[in-house]
């Protein structure tokens, strides 16, 4: 049997989830603000403690709302930052898998190509892709298999924000290392950026190419 304390914690969780489910845009924005302020930097076990071992129930609501609203840009910055708290938490592999299983990578890549989305929101999308790529080789491969190199490179070429472009360089640098299956593809994407109209994109692409360690058998042609 669960203790009175555990029952109270579960009751708070269910009440929180019900508040989210019943909330409109403004109320959800407020909930996201509170979540970010309260949980930034927490580990996965700490998040589970905060949510009475039911943190995934909130994450699935965040990912569902992202998929439903990302084309409109509604609360996108806070929504992506909230998902980032889950994905970047120490020992968060379960959250990462849950996010990827619902097509999280494709959604993040599609955000990069939408003209109506703000640069700041696209930068948050790039940061989440960094977290995913840094989680291991199979996740880098997943991004590349999802035509990620093209989407990321196109955003780098078109972006008007140098800060966002520098975040893209960090991501491309991650994808070009420890990713032998798609290393050639990333190199070709970087080379394709060299004649683009953005001087900053040209500079960052060249820097990444110079620092990349090409594995045996990898060609740049």
UniProtKB/TrEMBL annotation:
Pfam families: DUF5578. It comes from the Eukaryota. This is Armadillo like helical domain containing 1. InterPro entries: ARM-like, ARM-type_fold, DUF5578. It comes from Diceros bicornis minor (South-central black rhinoceros). Gene3D superfamilies: Leucine-rich Repeat Variant.
């Amino acid at each position: 049997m669960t203790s009175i304390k555990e029952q109270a914690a579960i009751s708070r969780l269910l009440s929180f989830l019900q508040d989210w489910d019943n909330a409109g845009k403004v109320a959800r924005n407020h909930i996201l603000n509170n979540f970010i302020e309260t949980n930034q930097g927490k580990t996965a076990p700490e998040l589970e403690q905060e949510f009475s071992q039911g943190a995934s129930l909130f994450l699935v609501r965040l990912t569902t709302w992202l998929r439903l609203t990302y084309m409109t840009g509604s609360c996108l910055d806070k929504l992506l930052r909230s998902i980032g708290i889950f994905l970047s938490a120490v020992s968060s592999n379960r959250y990462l898998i849950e996010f990827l299983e619902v097509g999280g990578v494709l959604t993040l890549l599609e955000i990069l190509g939408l003209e109506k989305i703000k640069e700041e929101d696209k930068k948050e999308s790039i940061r989440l892709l960094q977290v995913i790529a840094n989680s291991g080789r199979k996740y880098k491969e997943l991004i590349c298999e999802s035509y990620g190199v093209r989407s990321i490179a196109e955003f780098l070429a078109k972006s008007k924000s140098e800060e966002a472009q520098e975040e893209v360089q960090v991501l491309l640098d991650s994808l070009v290392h420890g990713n032998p299956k798609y290393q050639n593809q990333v190199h070709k994407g970087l080379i394709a950026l060299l004649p683009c109209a953005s001087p900053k994109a040209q500079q960052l692409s060249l820097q990444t190419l110079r620092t990349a360690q090409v594995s045996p058998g990898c060609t740049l042609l």
